[in-house]
Design brief:
With 289 residues, this protein is mainly alpha-helical. The protein has 13 helices and four strands. The chain has helices at residues 3-32, 36-48, 55-61, 67-79, 95-114, 120-139, 147-153, 162-185, 192-202, 209-215, 223-235, 250-268, 276-286, and strands spanning 83-87, 90-93, 239-240, 247-248. Strand 3 and strand 4 form a beta hairpin. Helix 3 packs across helix 4, helix 6 runs parallel beside helix 8 and helix 6 (120-139) crosses helix 13 (276-286). It starts with a helix and ends with a helix.
Protein backbone atom coordinates (compact mmCIF):
# COMPACT_ATOMS: atom_id res chain seq x y z
CA UNK A 1 0.00 0.00 0.00
CA UNK A 2 1.42 3.35 -1.09
CA UNK A 3 1.89 5.75 1.85
CA UNK A 4 0.13 8.58 0.03
CA UNK A 5 -2.90 6.40 -0.63
CA UNK A 6 -2.94 5.15 2.94
CA UNK A 7 -2.87 8.75 4.21
CA UNK A 8 -5.73 9.58 1.87
CA UNK A 9 -7.77 6.69 3.33
CA UNK A 10 -7.01 7.95 6.86
CA UNK A 11 -8.23 11.45 6.03
CA UNK A 12 -11.39 10.08 4.43
CA UNK A 13 -12.02 7.92 7.49
CA UNK A 14 -11.43 10.89 9.77
CA UNK A 15 -14.10 12.87 7.90
CA UNK A 16 -16.55 10.00 8.37
CA UNK A 17 -15.82 9.89 12.10
CA UNK A 18 -16.30 13.66 12.38
CA UNK A 19 -19.63 13.36 10.60
CA UNK A 20 -20.68 10.77 13.18
CA UNK A 21 -20.24 13.14 16.11
CA UNK A 22 -21.07 16.50 14.53
CA UNK A 23 -24.81 16.23 15.37
CA UNK A 24 -23.94 15.56 19.02
CA UNK A 25 -21.67 18.58 19.47
CA UNK A 26 -23.75 20.99 17.39
CA UNK A 27 -26.13 21.86 20.29
CA UNK A 28 -23.15 22.49 22.59
CA UNK A 29 -21.64 24.96 20.12
CA UNK A 30 -24.96 26.67 19.42
CA UNK A 31 -25.71 27.17 23.13
CA UNK A 32 -22.25 28.53 23.93
CA UNK A 33 -22.42 31.88 22.08
CA UNK A 34 -18.98 31.24 20.58
CA UNK A 35 -18.25 29.74 17.16
CA UNK A 36 -16.44 26.53 16.28
CA UNK A 37 -13.12 28.30 15.63
CA UNK A 38 -13.26 29.73 19.14
CA UNK A 39 -14.08 26.26 20.46
CA UNK A 40 -10.92 24.99 18.79
CA UNK A 41 -8.98 27.67 20.67
CA UNK A 42 -10.42 26.35 23.94
CA UNK A 43 -9.22 22.86 23.08
CA UNK A 44 -5.83 24.34 22.17
CA UNK A 45 -5.76 26.11 25.54
CA UNK A 46 -6.24 22.74 27.25
CA UNK A 47 -3.24 21.30 25.40
CA UNK A 48 -1.03 24.31 26.17
CA UNK A 49 -1.44 23.84 29.91
CA UNK A 50 0.33 24.48 32.21
CA UNK A 51 1.46 27.33 29.95
CA UNK A 52 -0.94 30.13 29.10
CA UNK A 53 -2.47 30.56 25.66
CA UNK A 54 -1.28 33.53 23.61
CA UNK A 55 -1.48 34.52 19.94
CA UNK A 56 2.22 33.69 19.71
CA UNK A 57 1.58 30.12 20.84
CA UNK A 58 -1.20 29.73 18.30
CA UNK A 59 0.94 31.14 15.51
CA UNK A 60 3.55 28.41 15.90
CA UNK A 61 1.27 25.89 14.16
CA UNK A 62 -0.92 28.44 12.38
CA UNK A 63 1.39 31.24 11.19
CA UNK A 64 -0.94 32.23 8.34
CA UNK A 65 -3.55 33.84 10.62
CA UNK A 66 -2.82 37.28 12.06
CA UNK A 67 -1.94 37.78 15.70
CA UNK A 68 -4.79 40.30 15.96
CA UNK A 69 -7.27 37.74 14.66
CA UNK A 70 -6.18 35.19 17.25
CA UNK A 71 -6.35 37.83 19.97
CA UNK A 72 -9.87 38.82 18.90
CA UNK A 73 -11.04 35.20 19.12
CA UNK A 74 -9.42 34.75 22.51
CA UNK A 75 -11.00 37.97 23.76
CA UNK A 76 -14.42 36.81 22.59
CA UNK A 77 -14.06 33.48 24.39
CA UNK A 78 -12.97 35.40 27.49
CA UNK A 79 -15.97 37.74 27.22
CA UNK A 80 -18.24 34.67 27.34
CA UNK A 81 -16.45 33.41 30.44
CA UNK A 82 -14.57 30.47 28.90
CA UNK A 83 -11.13 32.03 29.28
CA UNK A 84 -9.56 34.25 31.91
CA UNK A 85 -6.92 36.93 31.33
CA UNK A 86 -3.64 36.01 32.96
CA UNK A 87 -1.84 39.08 31.65
CA UNK A 88 -1.98 41.28 28.57
CA UNK A 89 -2.62 38.99 25.59
CA UNK A 90 -2.29 35.89 27.76
CA UNK A 91 -5.18 33.60 28.72
CA UNK A 92 -5.99 30.36 30.47
CA UNK A 93 -9.13 28.27 30.76
CA UNK A 94 -11.64 29.36 33.37
CA UNK A 95 -13.48 26.73 35.37
CA UNK A 96 -16.44 27.25 33.05
CA UNK A 97 -14.17 26.80 30.05
CA UNK A 98 -12.57 23.66 31.42
CA UNK A 99 -15.95 22.05 32.13
CA UNK A 100 -17.18 23.02 28.66
CA UNK A 101 -14.14 21.64 26.84
CA UNK A 102 -14.16 18.37 28.75
CA UNK A 103 -17.88 17.98 28.09
CA UNK A 104 -17.34 18.75 24.39
CA UNK A 105 -14.67 16.04 24.13
CA UNK A 106 -16.72 13.54 26.18
CA UNK A 107 -19.88 14.01 24.09
CA UNK A 108 -17.94 13.76 20.82
CA UNK A 109 -16.19 10.58 21.91
CA UNK A 110 -19.39 8.98 23.15
CA UNK A 111 -21.03 9.71 19.80
CA UNK A 112 -18.17 8.29 17.74
CA UNK A 113 -18.09 5.18 19.94
CA UNK A 114 -21.81 4.67 19.43
CA UNK A 115 -21.40 5.01 15.66
CA UNK A 116 -18.38 2.65 15.52
CA UNK A 117 -19.04 -0.14 13.02
CA UNK A 118 -15.70 -1.95 13.36
CA UNK A 119 -15.65 -5.32 15.07
CA UNK A 120 -13.46 -5.65 18.16
CA UNK A 121 -10.61 -7.42 16.38
CA UNK A 122 -10.34 -4.82 13.61
CA UNK A 123 -10.67 -1.95 16.07
CA UNK A 124 -7.90 -3.37 18.25
CA UNK A 125 -5.64 -3.98 15.25
CA UNK A 126 -6.11 -0.45 13.91
CA UNK A 127 -5.40 1.11 17.32
CA UNK A 128 -2.21 -0.94 17.66
CA UNK A 129 -0.92 0.05 14.24
CA UNK A 130 -1.83 3.73 14.68
CA UNK A 131 -0.29 3.81 18.15
CA UNK A 132 2.99 2.50 16.75
CA UNK A 133 2.92 5.07 13.94
CA UNK A 134 2.12 8.02 16.20
CA UNK A 135 4.83 7.07 18.69
CA UNK A 136 7.36 6.70 15.89
CA UNK A 137 6.50 10.20 14.65
CA UNK A 138 7.08 11.53 18.17
CA UNK A 139 10.38 9.64 18.50
CA UNK A 140 11.83 10.49 15.06
CA UNK A 141 14.62 13.10 15.40
CA UNK A 142 13.97 16.50 13.77
CA UNK A 143 13.34 17.79 11.27
CA UNK A 144 10.52 18.31 11.81
CA UNK A 145 10.12 19.46 15.37
CA UNK A 146 7.21 17.81 17.15
CA UNK A 147 5.45 20.90 18.54
CA UNK A 148 2.05 20.24 17.01
CA UNK A 149 1.90 16.48 17.37
CA UNK A 150 3.17 16.77 20.95
CA UNK A 151 0.25 19.01 21.86
CA UNK A 152 -2.27 16.80 20.07
CA UNK A 153 -0.87 13.73 21.80
CA UNK A 154 -1.83 15.21 25.17
CA UNK A 155 -5.46 14.46 24.28
CA UNK A 156 -4.89 10.77 23.46
CA UNK A 157 -7.50 8.65 25.29
CA UNK A 158 -7.18 5.02 26.38
CA UNK A 159 -7.09 2.54 23.52
CA UNK A 160 -10.52 1.21 24.47
CA UNK A 161 -13.07 2.02 23.21
CA UNK A 162 -11.25 2.01 19.91
CA UNK A 163 -12.86 4.81 17.90
CA UNK A 164 -11.92 7.80 20.12
CA UNK A 165 -8.32 6.53 20.11
CA UNK A 166 -8.39 6.12 16.32
CA UNK A 167 -9.84 9.61 15.83
CA UNK A 168 -7.23 11.26 18.06
CA UNK A 169 -4.45 9.30 16.35
CA UNK A 170 -5.61 10.80 13.05
CA UNK A 171 -5.50 14.21 14.71
CA UNK A 172 -1.93 13.54 15.86
CA UNK A 173 -0.88 12.57 12.35
CA UNK A 174 -2.45 15.71 10.89
CA UNK A 175 -0.55 17.72 13.50
CA UNK A 176 2.68 15.99 12.47
CA UNK A 177 1.87 16.80 8.85
CA UNK A 178 1.69 20.46 9.91
CA UNK A 179 5.05 20.10 11.68
CA UNK A 180 6.51 18.62 8.49
CA UNK A 181 5.05 21.37 6.34
CA UNK A 182 6.47 24.11 8.56
CA UNK A 183 9.91 22.49 8.47
CA UNK A 184 9.78 22.29 4.69
CA UNK A 185 9.66 26.05 4.04
CA UNK A 186 10.43 28.17 7.10
CA UNK A 187 14.19 27.91 6.64
CA UNK A 188 13.75 29.63 3.25
CA UNK A 189 12.97 32.90 5.01
CA UNK A 190 9.77 33.38 3.04
CA UNK A 191 6.95 34.92 5.09
CA UNK A 192 3.88 32.84 5.92
CA UNK A 193 1.58 35.13 3.94
CA UNK A 194 3.87 34.93 0.92
CA UNK A 195 3.98 31.14 1.08
CA UNK A 196 0.20 30.87 1.37
CA UNK A 197 -0.28 33.31 -1.51
CA UNK A 198 2.16 31.35 -3.66
CA UNK A 199 0.37 28.11 -2.82
CA UNK A 200 -2.99 29.43 -4.04
CA UNK A 201 -1.45 30.71 -7.29
CA UNK A 202 0.52 27.46 -7.70
CA UNK A 203 -2.68 25.44 -7.35
CA UNK A 204 -4.42 27.64 -9.90
CA UNK A 205 -7.09 28.61 -7.37
CA UNK A 206 -6.59 32.39 -7.66
CA UNK A 207 -4.97 34.75 -10.17
CA UNK A 208 -5.83 38.25 -8.92
CA UNK A 209 -5.17 40.29 -5.80
CA UNK A 210 -8.90 40.66 -5.15
CA UNK A 211 -9.39 36.90 -5.32
CA UNK A 212 -6.46 36.43 -2.94
CA UNK A 213 -7.69 38.88 -0.32
CA UNK A 214 -11.26 37.59 -0.52
CA UNK A 215 -10.15 33.98 -0.22
CA UNK A 216 -7.98 34.70 2.82
CA UNK A 217 -10.16 37.31 4.54
CA UNK A 218 -10.67 34.94 7.50
CA UNK A 219 -6.95 35.27 8.29
CA UNK A 220 -7.53 38.79 9.56
CA UNK A 221 -4.81 40.54 7.55
CA UNK A 222 -5.29 43.90 5.79
CA UNK A 223 -4.85 43.98 2.03
CA UNK A 224 -1.41 45.57 2.41
CA UNK A 225 -0.06 42.36 3.95
CA UNK A 226 -0.88 40.47 0.76
CA UNK A 227 0.43 43.25 -1.47
CA UNK A 228 3.70 43.02 0.46
CA UNK A 229 3.60 39.21 0.19
CA UNK A 230 3.22 39.43 -3.59
CA UNK A 231 6.09 41.91 -3.78
CA UNK A 232 8.16 39.43 -1.76
CA UNK A 233 7.31 36.66 -4.23
CA UNK A 234 8.22 38.87 -7.18
CA UNK A 235 11.57 39.69 -5.57
CA UNK A 236 12.33 35.95 -5.63
CA UNK A 237 11.00 35.63 -9.18
CA UNK A 238 8.34 33.19 -7.96
CA UNK A 239 5.40 34.96 -9.65
CA UNK A 240 4.92 37.20 -12.67
CA UNK A 241 2.13 39.29 -14.14
CA UNK A 242 0.07 42.18 -12.90
CA UNK A 243 -2.30 42.23 -9.93
CA UNK A 244 -5.21 41.05 -12.07
CA UNK A 245 -3.29 38.32 -13.99
CA UNK A 246 -0.77 36.66 -11.69
CA UNK A 247 1.06 33.48 -12.67
CA UNK A 248 3.58 31.25 -10.98
CA UNK A 249 6.97 31.28 -12.70
CA UNK A 250 9.08 28.21 -13.36
CA UNK A 251 11.28 29.20 -10.43
CA UNK A 252 8.20 29.59 -8.23
CA UNK A 253 6.87 26.21 -9.31
CA UNK A 254 10.19 24.54 -8.57
CA UNK A 255 10.28 26.14 -5.11
CA UNK A 256 6.70 25.15 -4.24
CA UNK A 257 7.24 21.65 -5.62
CA UNK A 258 10.28 21.33 -3.35
CA UNK A 259 8.21 22.43 -0.36
CA UNK A 260 5.65 19.73 -1.13
CA UNK A 261 8.30 17.07 -1.68
CA UNK A 262 10.08 18.01 1.56
CA UNK A 263 6.80 17.92 3.48
CA UNK A 264 6.12 14.41 2.19
CA UNK A 265 9.69 13.33 2.95
CA UNK A 266 9.54 14.49 6.57
CA UNK A 267 5.97 13.30 7.11
CA UNK A 268 6.34 9.79 5.72
CA UNK A 269 9.83 9.03 7.08
CA UNK A 270 8.45 7.53 10.36
CA UNK A 271 6.01 5.33 8.45
CA UNK A 272 8.75 2.74 7.91
CA UNK A 273 7.76 1.34 11.30
CA UNK A 274 4.93 -0.44 9.44
CA UNK A 275 5.67 -3.18 6.95
CA UNK A 276 3.84 -3.65 3.65
CA UNK A 277 1.44 -6.27 5.04
CA UNK A 278 0.51 -4.07 8.00
CA UNK A 279 -0.19 -1.14 5.69
CA UNK A 280 -2.43 -3.34 3.55
CA UNK A 281 -4.20 -4.55 6.66
CA UNK A 282 -4.69 -0.99 7.86
CA UNK A 283 -6.14 0.02 4.49
CA UNK A 284 -8.64 -2.83 4.60
CA UNK A 285 -9.85 -1.76 8.04
CA UNK A 286 -10.02 1.91 7.07
CA UNK A 287 -12.30 1.00 4.17
CA UNK A 288 -14.75 -0.45 6.69
CA UNK A 289 -15.15 2.78 8.70
Amino acid sequence: MDDQMLWKLMRESWIKIQQSYDPAIKPIVEESEINIREWMLLIAALTFEPEDTTPSHLMVRGPYTSSDQYLSRLERAAAEGYLEHKSQGSFHLSEKGRRAVLKFIKVAREAMTEADNLDNEDGQMLTELLARLVHNCLDTPPPPNTWSIGLSFKLMPANEPAMPFIEQAFSCLLAYRDDAHLASWQSSGLSASALESLTLIWRGEISTVDQLTERLSFRGHPKKVYLDALAELRSHDYISGFQNVMRVTEEGKLFRDRVEASTDHYFFAPWDCLNANEKEQMAEILNEI
